[in-house]
Amino acid sequence: MAAFREMHYNSHNAGTFGLHIHVNRDALGEHSATQDGTISKILYLFERFWQEILRSSLRTERLGCPP
User: What does pTM read for this prediction?
Assistant: First the structure.
């Protein structure tokens, strides 16, 4: 968490940061099999690094917003 503060990532008024990304399936590959493979890799990364993602998101396991 401290590393993100050192990089000065902040939201516009909360003193915290956030990351929100939208990706069209077409950007993940030309064919549906390639797209599915890319989606699988993204899901793997979320599963593998879930605790780090959760910690940096300032949310809890119940996926609620911080108090």
Answer: 0.59
